[in-house]
Design a protein that fits this description.
Elements (H helix, E strand, L loop, with lengths): L4 H49 L6 H11 L3 E6 L2 E6 L7 E6 L5 H12 L6 E6 L8 E7 H54 L15 H55 L5 H22 L1 H5 L9 E4 H13 L7 E6 L5 E4 L1 H22 L3 E9 L3 E8 L6 H5 L16 H12 L3 E8 L2 E9 L6
Helix pairs in contact: 1-2, 1-3, 1-4, 4-5, 5-6, 8-9, 9-11
């Protein structure tokens, strides 16, 4: 029972109800004692007035009967300045306490009642009160507390049973109410979660908020949003898996085609035309990279991108080669691609992967500049920042729209042009992370866009 919400609530309800009954019992037992003593004093007053009105006709046996009926041992009545012992009997012991009922405070009544409740030994107490209905100035009586203690115990037992009955009834009603209003909706929520977990791609299993309780409806709404996002993500991953499977199937044939193209490009180097001889090596290198890319497609689909083969590169020669190769794809009068790299600068990177990174950034920048319909520039800037190398790719394009910036490096979500897949920046970011570095959007606006690549000079330190 302690492991269930309803069981714990039931136990807490019983405990709190009993605690409330205890808080009620303390003043109740004090009130009971006060009424008990007040009743005895009223009886004592009646007995004393009866004796004073017919003293000559009442013998000693009748006096004893009057005392027994009043439940007192003696009575002292004060009228004006006279204090008179009206009824008396032999006291079984000395008077141990005086109780004044004329104007007691609640704290004193509670204190004396609790003290009497826990003291079973009978004692003789003197009780003082004001006579009822103007029957004198003051009345005193000696009372044996044995009967008082027994009466308080009986009253306490009755209160205990009443408390138990109230606790059981209250707990039962609260248990039913909580089970219906809280426990059952929570269980229903849990069943929805289990149902969705069994088939998360099934949109029909997504929970629809229906609770009238605000907190539960907020939980259902949050769960609905979470399940919707998860279902969409799973469907997207399934499509990506299917796409990866399709790419893997065509990678072998595509590699053969590229290999054939590479062989034909090799023969172009034997042509005497100077332009062909100058372009042919670049075509061969591009085709070689395409072959390597297709061979790595299957591994990429398995989330098994090869780790970078790091080596020191002459940054000036390396970036010049990339810029020249990309420049061949566009008219230099429309887009000019250049680099700004200090002579002698070396950086540590995988040449093939770095070529893919910079190539992706330049192609994105080139498309952005061409979209403006105006001439523009793209520049690759590299520098040594002390503990890291910084490579910037800048352009004079129109900048990135806010929507593209939200998921810039997410595959199939960060596309910056119509019809794009968004894979270029996602692949570039992943390859940079493989180098232990970072790829970030440094700035974008109407004057252009700058991407920043930071590569650590010591592995593990950016």
């Amino acid at each position: 029972m302690l492991k269930t919400l309803s069981g714990r609530f039931l136990i807490l309800t019983v405990v709190f109800v009993m605690l409330a009954e205890v808080l009620i019992f303390v003043p109740s037992i004090a009130r009971f004692r006060l009424e008990y003593l007040t009743d005895r004093m009223e009886r004592a007053q009646i007995a004393s007035l009866a004796l004073l009105g017919a003293r000559d006709m009442i013998d000693e046996a009748v006096e004893v009967e009057l005392l027994e009926n009043a439940g007192v041992l003696n009575v002292v009545l004060r009228r004006d300045a006279l204090r008179q012992l009206v009824l008396s009997s032999d006291l079984p012991g000395p008077v141990t306490q005086t109780v004044d009922l004329r104007d007691p405070s609640p704290a004193i009544l509670i204190r004396d009642a609790l003290a009497r409740f826990v003291t079973p030994e009978p004692e003789i107490i003197r009780v003082i009160s004001e006579p009822a209905r103007g029957g004198g100035v003051q009345i005193e009586a000696a009372i044996d507390t044995g009967d008082l203690h027994a009466a308080m115990i009986d009253y306490g037992i009755n209160i205990l049973w009443l408390s138990l009955v109230i606790s059981v009834i209250t707990s039962a009603f609260l248990f039913i109410a909580v089970r219906r209003l809280m426990v059952m909706p929570v269980k229903k929520l849990a069943r929805h979660m289990m149902s969705f977990a069994s088939a998360p791609e099934d949109a029909r299993r997504i929970i629809e908020p229906s609770s009238n309780v605000r907190e539960l409806r907020e939980a259902e709404t949050a769960l609905h949003d979470l399940e919707t996002q998860l279902s969409q993500s799973l469907r997207q991953k399934e499509r990506l898996a299917q796409l990866g499977s399709a790419v893997a199937k065509i990678s072998h044939d595509l590699r053969n085609i590229l290999t054939t193209a590479t062989l034909l490009a090799d023969r172009m180097e034997t042509v005497d035309d100077p332009t062909v001889r100058r372009v042919a090596p670049k075509i061969v290198k591009s085709l070689t990279r395409a072959v390597n890319l297709t061979e790595g497609t299957l591994a990429f689909g398995k989330a098994d991108e090869a780790p970078p083969a790091l080596q020191l590169l002459d940054a000036c020669v390396f970036f010049e080669e990339i810029c020249e190769g990309e420049q061949l794809a566009v008219d230099p009068d429309i887009v000019r691609i250049r680099h700004s790299v200090p002579a002698g600068l070396q950086l540590r990177a995988d040449p093939e992967q770095m070529h893919r990174i910079i190539g992706n950034l330049i192609r994105n920048a080139r498309q952005a500049v061409q979209a403006t319909g105006k001439p523009g520039e793209i520049e690759v800037i590299a520098a040594d920042a002390g503990n890291c190398w910084q490579v910037r790719v800048t352009d004079t394009g129109p900048g990135l729209p806010p929507r593209a910036q939200e998921n810039l490096f997410q595959a199939f979500q960060g596309n910056v042009r119509k019809g794009g897949t968004g894979l270029g920046l996602a692949i570039a970011s992943e390859l940079v992370r493989g180098h232990g570095g970072t790829l970030t959007l440094e700035k974008t606006g109407e004057t252009g866009t700058t991407f920043l690549i930071v590569l650590p000079q010591q592995m593990g330190v950016v």
